[in-house]
Amino acid sequence: MKINTVIHRPLITEKSSQEASKGVYLFEVGTDTNKHQIAQTVEEIYTVKVKSVKITVRKGKERRVGRKMKSKMMPDRKIAYVTLSQGEIDLFPKA
């Protein structure tokens, strides 16, 4: 698989910044990827050693959009919690 189909983007939120201090990083990943592919891709991109990967699936919500406020289903999102055994990823640049 290509790298951009496995990891879509890192999640940068208040919760993810708190988890990063513990060595856990959050990524939005493809819905058809598994833990082994995620770990291998993170190790390849960031040159770190992955200890474990946990996955959650967040179901898409129904949103009302447009001028007529029609209902639209948002897509499901798969979130990976990647724990590093050693090393650190610089997702939060210091300004």
TrEMBL record:
<keyword id="KW-0699">rRNA-binding</keyword>
<dbReference type="InterPro" id="IPR013025">
    <property type="entry name" value="Ribosomal_uL23-like"/>
</dbReference>
<dbReference type="GO" id="GO:0019843">
    <property type="term" value="F:rRNA binding"/>
</dbReference>
<dbReference type="GO" id="GO:0003735">
    <property type="term" value="F:structural constituent of ribosome"/>
</dbReference>
<dbReference type="GO" id="GO:0006412">
    <property type="term" value="P:translation"/>
</dbReference>
<dbReference type="InterPro" id="IPR012678">
    <property type="entry name" value="Ribosomal_uL23/eL15/eS24_sf"/>
</dbReference>
<comment type="function">
    <text>One of the early assembly proteins it binds 23S rRNA. One of the proteins that surrounds the polypeptide exit tunnel on the outside of the ribosome. Forms the main docking site for trigger factor binding to the ribosome.</text>
</comment>
<protein>
    <recommendedName>
        <fullName>Large ribosomal subunit protein uL23</fullName>
    </recommendedName>
</protein>
<dbReference type="GO" id="GO:0005840">
    <property type="term" value="C:ribosome"/>
</dbReference>
<dbReference type="InterPro" id="IPR012677">
    <property type="entry name" value="Nucleotide-bd_a/b_plait_sf"/>
</dbReference>
<keyword id="KW-0694">RNA-binding</keyword>
<dbReference type="GO" id="GO:1990904">
    <property type="term" value="C:ribonucleoprotein complex"/>
</dbReference>
<comment type="similarity">
    <text>Belongs to the universal ribosomal protein uL23 family.</text>
</comment>
<dbReference type="Pfam" id="PF00276">
    <property type="entry name" value="Ribosomal_L23"/>
</dbReference>
<comment type="subunit">
    <text>Part of the 50S ribosomal subunit. Contacts protein L29, and trigger factor when it is bound to the ribosome.</text>
</comment>
<keyword id="KW-0689">Ribosomal protein</keyword>
<keyword id="KW-0687">Ribonucleoprotein</keyword>
